[in-house]
Amino acid sequence: MNFYERCWGIERANRVFNEMPKREDVVWNEAVKLNVKHEQWVRALELLREMQYSCMKVKGTTTVRVLQACGKLKALAQGKQIHAHVLRFGMESSVPICNVLISMYAKNGELELAGAVFNSMEDRNLTSWNSIISAYASFGFLDDAWNHFHKLKSSTIKPDIVTWNCLLSGHTLNGSYEDVLTILRMMQIYGIQPNSRSITCGLQSVIELGLLPHGKEIHNYVIRHDLDCDVYVGTSIVDMYAKRDCLDIARAVFNNLKSKNIFAWNSLISGYSFKGHLQDAENLVGQMEDAGIKPDIVTWNSMVSGYSMWGHTEKALDMIHQIKLSGLTPNVISWTALISGCSQNGKYRESLEYFIQMQEEGIKPNAVTISTVLQSCGGLSLLQKGKEIHCLSVKNGMTRDVCVATAIIDMYNKSGSWRSAHKVFKRIHKNSLASFNCMIMGFAMYGLGKEAISLFHEMCSIGITPDAITFTAILSACKNSGLVNEGWEFFDKMSRDYNVTPKIEHYSCMVDLLGRAGYLDETWDFIQKMPLKPDATIWGALLCSSRIHENIEYAEIAAKNLYELEPDNSANYVLMMNLYAMSNRWKDFDHVKELMNSAGLKNGQAWSWTQIDHTVHHFSAGQSTHPDCGEIYFELYQLISQIKKLGYVPDVSCVYQDIDDVEKEKVLLSHTEKLAITYGLMKRKGSAPIRVIKNSRICSDCHTVAKYISMLRKCEIIIKDGVRFHHLSKGNCSCKDCW
DNA sequence: ATAGGGTTAG
Hints:
Blueprint (H helix, E strand, L loop, with lengths): L1 H18 L5 H13 L3 H13 L6 H13 L3 H13 L6 H13 L3 H10 L5 H13 L3 H12 L7 H14 L2 H13 L6 H14 L2 H13 L6 H13 L3 H10 L5 H13 L3 H13 L6 H13 L3 H13 L6 H13 L3 H13 L6 H14 L2 H13 L6 H13 L3 H10 L5 H13 L3 H13 L6 H14 L2 H13 L7 H13 L3 H10 L6 H13 L3 H14 L4 H13 L3 H13 L8 E6 L2 E6 L8 H17 L15 H9 L2 H12 L6 E5 L5 H13 L4 E4 L4 E5 L2 E2 L6
Parallel strand pairs: 3-4
Antiparallel strand pairs: 1-2, 1-3, 4-5, 5-6
The protein binds one DNA strand through helix 4, helix 6, helix 8, helix 10 and helix 12.
């Protein structure tokens, strides 16, 4: 039989077997084992059944082999049949057979059955214990695994390296990386030498936890125990250094590797690419090819991701082309890398275009792709497109994914529809810290301070601990709703009760909160006492508040710092010019204007847009480019005269030009958000809210006009300005006029 | 006869 197997393979061997006139038990057993070895599963089982029918003796070793195969092939039904056979022929007292039964059930995910077999055993050896501990650990039932470990320790049998490694890999799979390191320490206490498998678990944990010193310790251990010739260990070390930004060390370790497989190359390349050393990464790809290793899809994807993340979209696209040239097909990860890079760099439009292109090439998006694309929709406030993607994710059952759910909430918040965001939020079964943060931030953006605060309390009451991001959200909610006392309270509480040290963004919120409320001296005091060096956000907040409350003294201090910290930000110059204009200080006005000109800066173009059906309508300051321009102005004049009857008085202080009030009133009319709102009113169908996006901050006059229009025409108007959202209805705004 | 079988890209 063996001879035939060697010369002509399993089929020939089976034929010879069938032609044998008289077949002994031994031959039958050999035939079954052989078929299992060649993964001729059906045939092996047929033979086994024939043996059972003819009451032949099936040897223990044969049974073990077949059960092993049932585990590997996840053939639960067949496994159970053999289990029945084992019971019928009284083989259940055999320790090896029970051991393999445990393993078979575990591999098929039947932990209860595995446990039942283990419990029914009269005698157990170390392998039995290892099998059951491995079963529980590999499915994340770590408590059960430890329980059995402790029972084992109180018996006469001693755990070995396999036992420990089962626990290590269980904790690694479960993501409890601190525990992995603790177990490694325990092993040393018990005098068990970690082997290469233990080490790879440890290294993976060190990478996830970002504990480079521990990693170096493990590296030393590896060198001392000659484990660095293990391919997996070597690659993990390269990977660790590459991920922790120690590219030189990573390269040195890599160069010393005895055998360099594709994983090692890829780890190094991804390290260089991720850090933005793209030329080095590309050179490595060349070297890898010279060494006779063909770059695979992972190699190329590292390159796509690097280029795309660092803003070189064209090169990323070029890499996608290269993938095709090398005979491979760009997969969902290649495309997601490209799309995500665009989105992260603010190239939202491009990212949406590539999303379409990806689908045209027959690649289906997954949850990561969807979350990324939703970010792009939010970035552009494209509510319609965002809704489409939301539908797509529902259709594909992706809303259960925490990242997708959070991205949907964020998209609705950023697209002017906090109600939809809230609806999605409430429908999520188990909200996470991230989704709470996202929704609190959403309320904050609309000036819904009370709602944000009550959500904060709800979150704490169900046992979720707020983090630094939660406090940024809650403080900006207080800031956007003018809740000074509440803001102070949260600021005190965060370090006192929640052990979160305030960062610069928290200080910035406080400066904004105090300043806008008019407590400028207190704000100044606060900045002086801050333990951190004030940055542009702090001075920017002070400048804004000083402008609102027309305090030239503080404004000038803030501006002086800002001109140094961000000389290219025209907004700072413009704010200063506004302030001087308000106080009729035209000489100072001209001075700032010169300063701005000499820095080569222009006053940014103001624009607004609104979406009607599937078309985006753009309105730019000083241009009457819209085809329906005449009609829009006609409608606007009528609206203005109607709201004047309701009490509207134009706020000419919003015009910072040295002209008379009649002229100023005309200038007010041309503000782009008014045109966009008017157009939205003209074209809207039914009672859908009018949504307008504006690149800079809305002025107080437009804000007032929008409030009156919402009252007059009984409509909802949602305006996103450079900073936040305004949700207007029935003559009121969600921001309660504190901006 | 029986236990563990890993590392890279979004």
